[in-house]
Amino acid sequence: MSFPDNYQPATDLLNDKAILVTGAGDGIGRVAAKTFAAHGATVILLGRTLGKLEKVYDEIEAAGGPQPAIYPMNLEGAAEKDYNDMCDTLEQEFGKLDGILHNASILGPRTPIGNYPADSWLQVMQINVNAPFMLTRALLPLLERSNNASLLFTGSSVGLEGRAHWGAYAASKAALENLMQTLADELADATRIRANSVNPGATRTRMRAAAYPAEDPGSIKPPEALMPLYLYLMGDDSLEETGRQFKG
Ligand SMILES: NC(=O)c1ccc[n+]([C@@H]2O[C@H](COP(=O)([O-])OP(=O)(O)OC[C@H]3O[C@@H](n4cnc5c(N)ncnc54)[C@H](OP(=O)(O)O)[C@@H]3O)[C@@H](O)[C@H]2O)c1
Questions:
Q1: What is the rounded distance in angstroms from the CA atom of residue 55 to the CA atom of residue 197?
Q2: Which tens digit of pLDDT belongs to each residue from 217-235?
Q3: Tens of pLDDT, residues 50-71
Q4: Per-residue confidence (pLDDT) for residue 245, from 0 to 100
Q5: Atom of ligand 1 nearest to the CA of 127
Q6: What was the pLDDT predicted at 191?
Q7: Cβ–Cβ under 8 Å, residues 42 and 122
């Protein structure tokens, strides 16, 4: 089944699934974490600002969702050992992992390449593409223990075609699409892990406001509008989908 326009996710779509959401404290990640929990998932909230993660945790508990877990981590400084430690912790806690929403990213400077600071380039690449690579690699053994696992990467229009002044952000999103395709191809035959990407399109968040300060936030869709697609891709209705790019 391909994503239907009128997709109606079952309320128990994600029951018994453990799903990791990066950048779960704000924007699209925050709404996705709460939505996954509302559909039965045990959500692991990863982010760099503990206070924001705690707020999402409280909101999930207040709404009666399965008790989530908080995993504070700054993806900029995380090293191989941190990801391996994370794998050990999640293995002890949950025994398996059914999905990762790779959502955390930073915009970086909106500057022509001629002026683009090298340290900013490296920072954006570290958070937006190196971290998802290391996180995925470390957690593959746990994903393999799931009946059906979903890897969902977050792309962007500028990752499909570069555009002036989008610098490392655009390059990082292009690399992420390619990583998704490589994983989908490698995992297709040997595992029950699928990998897809979603390009949210213009969505009302802090990042969007930073990229388009003159825009009226009220004129663009809220993160909630993306949730049917995110649920479809995280749940078992999308078992046939892998290696595909979806548009929100
Ligand atoms: N909004 C749009 O219009 C749009 C369009 C296309 C693609 N996207 C993509 O959609 C995804 C979500 O974007 P958004 O608009 O929701 O952005 P956002 O509101 O800025 O949220 C980004 C989240 O990532 C977290 N994060 C950033 N750096 C991190 C780090 N070093 N370690 C751990 N967490 C980190 C942030 O944590 P803090 O809250 O602690 O800062 C925040 O929770 C991103 O991948 C973005 O590229 C968004």
A1: 27
A2: 999 999 999 999 999 999 9
A3: 999 999 999 999 999 999 999 9
A4: 97
A5: 31
A6: 86
A7: no
Q: Which atom of ligand 1 is nearest to the CA of 203?
A: 3
Ligand 1 centroid to 207 CA: how many Å?
Answer: 6
Which two tokens mark 194? 């699928």
Other CB atoms within 10 Å distance of the CB of residue 162: 14
pTM for the whole thing?
A: 0.98
What is the distance between the alpha carbons of residues 176 and 195, in angstroms, rounded to a whole number?
A: 11
pLDDT tens digits along 94-140: 999 999 999 999 999 999 999 999 999 999 999 999 999 999 999 99
Q: Which amino acid is at 89?
A: T
Which runs of consecutive H residues, i.e. helices, occur in the chain? Answer: 27-38, 50-62, 80-94, 118-125, 131-143, 157-160, 167-187, 206-211, 227-234
Q: Which residues line ligand 1 (CB under 6 A)?
A: 23, 25-29, 47-49, 52, 74-76, 103-106, 127, 154, 156, 200, 202-203, 205-208
Domains and CATH numbers, the chain: 18-240 (3.40.50.720)
